[in-house]
Design a protein that fits this description.
The chain is α+β, with helices and mostly antiparallel strands and 90 residues long. Helices cover 16% and strands 53% of the residues. It is globular, with a radius of gyration of 13 Å.
């Protein structure tokens, strides 16, 4: 999760695509309107065999304010690597 957050900060679409499971990966990833990310807060994480979940908040600048998005992300471990599947925002 932390490496994917860092990739969003650096607008590294190639890394995000490579760590997104092929069954859920979008055909095109446009990060041009990505906000100015400030901080990642991992609230919880869990692993059950080859499935994982991370609950996090990612803080960003919104004009003069600071806002955040919160998500529970699902991951799967395949071929020796973790891949992002989907996320549910709240």
């Amino acid at each position: 999760m932390r490496s994917r957050y860092s990739a969003f900060v650096g607008r590294l679409a190639g890394y995000l695509e490579a760590t997104w499971h092929s069954s859920y990966r979008p055909a095109f990833l446009d990060l041009s309107d990505s906000p100015n990310w400030l901080k990642l807060q991992v609230i919880s994480s869990s692993v059950d065999q080859n499935k994982g979940q991370v609950h996090f908040r990612a803080f960003y600048r919104d004009g003069d304010d600071i806002a955040f998005m919160e998500e529970k992300s699902d991951f799967i471990f395949e071929d020796g690597k973790w891949y992002y599947l989907t996320g549910q925002t709240s």
